[in-house]
Every structure is written in structure tokens, then in C-alpha cells.
UniProtKB/TrEMBL annotation:
Keyword terms of this UniProt record: Membrane, Transmembrane, Transmembrane helix
Organism of origin: Chloroflexus aurantiacus (strain ATCC 29366 / DSM 635 / J-10-fl)
Superkingdom field: Bacteria
Protein name (Swiss-Prot/TrEMBL): Flp/Fap pilin component
InterPro entries per UniProt: Flp_Fap
Transmembrane spans: 20-38
Length: 55
């Protein structure tokens, strides 16, 4: 019984999943920050492009 409990708590299967989740959260924070800083410039660029394309 003791060895079964020890092996249950010693498993590290979820560790990789948590690491991937943390990496995804970090990437999301960086993307949101970049879009916040560059959002208006990108919006102006697309508006100018749309104005150029329309006849």
C-alpha cells in the first residue's frame, strides 16, 4: 500500500503540461502587449491600404 501511494505522488506526467501552459500564457501576454503598443499604427496602415484598394 505504501509503495502504491509513493508511486502515485512521484508521477510527474502533469509537469510537462503545466510547462506548456506557462509558455502559452507568456506568448499570449507578449502578443497582447505588442498589439496594445502597435495597435493604432496597424489600424492606420490597414485603413490606408483599404483606401488605396477601393476605386
Amino acid at each position: 500500500m505504501f509503495t502504491m501511494l509513493r508511486s502515485f505522488f512521484a508521477k510527474e506526467e502533469g509537469q510537462g503540461l503545466v510547462e506548456y501552459a506557462l509558455i502559452l500564457v507568456l506568448i499570449a501576454v507578449v502578443v497582447i502587449g505588442a498589439l496594445t503598443l502597435l495597435g493604432q499604427n496597424i489600424s492606420d496602415l490597414f485603413n490606408n491600404l483599404a483606401g488605396t484598394i477601393q476605386p
